[in-house]
Amino acid sequence: MHILPQESILFVLFAIIVILLIARLATAPVQAMLKLLVNSVAAVILLCFISIIGEYWGIHLPINPVTILLIAVLGLPGLLLVGVLHFLFV
After folding, report:
1. Residue 16: what are its φ and ψ, rounded to 5°?
2. Separation of alpha carbons 82 and 87, rounded Å
3. What does pLDDT average to in each consecutive run of 10 residues of the chain (90 residues)?
4. Euclidean distance between CA atoms 82 and 61, whole angstroms
């Protein structure tokens, strides 16, 4: 029976941890872009819904790349910011 030296076992464990960290770092930008894409689609749907419902009260928020990204990144505070800025400057 052959017994591995303790240094070899530690090296293998360290190598596995480094590989997992590198894989995690490599997929992080992809996950962030995917999350931004999903949030952008949700922002478009939300803005369309607000425009359809708000038509009865004369409320219309612009649907453009700036408002979509602002809402996608900031969420509900971004929607409130777009609404406040729209009513202040229009």
Report:
1. -65, -45
2. 9
3. 71 83 80 87 90 86 87 89 86
4. 8
Asked, for residue 67, whether it belongs to a domain, the answer is yes
pLDDT at 18: 84
In a domain, 80, yes or no: yes
Contacts of 59 (CB under 8 A, 6+ apart): 50, 51, 53
How many domains in the chain? 1
Supply the pLDDT for residue 4: 66
CB atoms within 10 A of CB 33: 10
Q: Note whether residue 1 is domain-resident.
A: no
68-81 burial, b at 16+ Cβ within 10 Å, e below that, comes to: bebbbeeeeebbee
- Give the structural domain span for 19: 6-89
What is the pLDDT at residue 45? Answer: 92
Query: Distance of CA 64 to CAs 1, 4, 27, 83, Å?
Result: 69, 62, 29, 13
